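ok so I'm stuck.
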Amino acid sequence: MKFYFNSRQVPSLKGLSLQERFEKIEAATKKLTPPEKILLNIFKLAVLIPAFVFLLQVVQNWWSILGAAGCLLLFPLLVKPVQLTMVSKYIK
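replied:
not stuck anymore, here's the structure
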């Protein structure tokens, strides 16, 4: 299984404009099976939960805002490759 970090790396999306790639990715995301959707959503939650934990700690430690911001900045860097890898088999 090859990880794609950018939509331009997906072989079936090469040569398409950004809008066309986005539309094909959205259509392929709708074709995911229920277990795949659940797995992707659980992964998204696993990435977002630490940000909320950091936000809960803001009352005690203001530096935890940086941790929450870091988690939120890492969200697209971690989730997008997993999503692209999962939907690449449904893109034609």
